[in-house]
């Protein structure tokens, strides 16, 4: 008996069609569409961050196929390229906020978490010197096994000097996890991790959106310090450098005064014009 081909088509559930329409409408009406990783993010932290971002940011976690369809249906120019960044375990953030401003907000919403054995250290993990609430006991040998120098004061343990207990890129062992737990060290953070974002104003997709505020601030401080030292060394006068330049000049004056056999002046304003001329000629 010949087989009869079925002509019955699987109808797409109405709720899925409506969801695609809703996402498409949100995409078309807003400036920024961002994909953010929520992999390994606990539900409690997810809901907390979502609440923090509301109502300015719509947070949706749709199925990949539905999100694909919504992007295809969008009228925005170049947005279809955003599909290349689709991954598992992502949330879609839709808002009028600029992508980099949104990324900054996500950086601020990161929650510190304790380390687990086997995790790879993202940076050197350090134990800072100073007093602790730990009392002398078995923990003394635990600290010693990690090379942490201590002393006991009033029955409590004090860390004598800074010690790196896990180097960047190394796996974290059980001993380090135990000590970090006792000292309340939280070397990791969880939150929404920006992967890619479409900006309607520029009609571009940005994939380098992770903002390290702490690292950037440290870098700026370092550059400022180095530029200040250079500006003072070449006697470049600015509001920030003038006091250091004058201090350097006074130091040079005293050194030259000793060299030519007279007592240095305590107040440069009392130096005679003749002495100033002599100092000037000597420096030249």
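^ Assign residues to that structure.
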């Amino acid at each position: 008996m010949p087989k009869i081909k079925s002509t019955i088509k699987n109808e797409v559930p109405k709720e899925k069609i409506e969801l695609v329409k809703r996402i498409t409408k949100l995409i078309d009406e807003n400036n920024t569409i961002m994909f953010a990783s929520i992999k390994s993010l606990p539900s409690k932290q997810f809901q907390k961050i979502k609440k923090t971002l509301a109502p300015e940011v719509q947070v949706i976690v749709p199925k990949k196929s539905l999100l694909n369809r919504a992007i295809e249906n969008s009228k925005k120019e170049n947005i279809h390229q955003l599909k290349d960044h689709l991954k598992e375990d992502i949330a879609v953030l839709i808002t009028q906020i600029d992508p980099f401003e949104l990324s900054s907000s996500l950086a601020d919403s990161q929650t510190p978490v304790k380390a687990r054995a086997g995790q790879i250290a993202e940076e050197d993990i350090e134990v800072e010197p100073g007093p602790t609430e730990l009392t002398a006991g078995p923990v003394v040998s635990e600290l010693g096994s990690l090379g942490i120098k201590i002393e006991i004061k009033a029955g409590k343990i004090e860390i004598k000097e800074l010690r790196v207990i896990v180097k960047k890129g190394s796996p974290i062992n059980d001993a380090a996890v135990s000590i970090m737990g006792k000292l309340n060290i939280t070397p990791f953070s969880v939150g929404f991790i920006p992967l890619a974002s479409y900006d309607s104003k520029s009609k571009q997709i940005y994939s380098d959106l992770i903002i390290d505020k702490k690292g950037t601030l440290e870098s700026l401080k370092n550059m400022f310090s180095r530029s200040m030292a250079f500006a003072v060394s070449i006697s470049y006068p600015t509001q920030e450098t003038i006091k250091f330049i004058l201090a350097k000049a006074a130091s040079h004056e005293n050194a030259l005064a000793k060299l030519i056999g007279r007592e240095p002046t305590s107040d440069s304003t009392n130096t005679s014009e003749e002495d100033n001329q002599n100092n000037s000629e000597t420096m030249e």
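The chain has three domains: 14-110+191-211, 125-188, 217-274.
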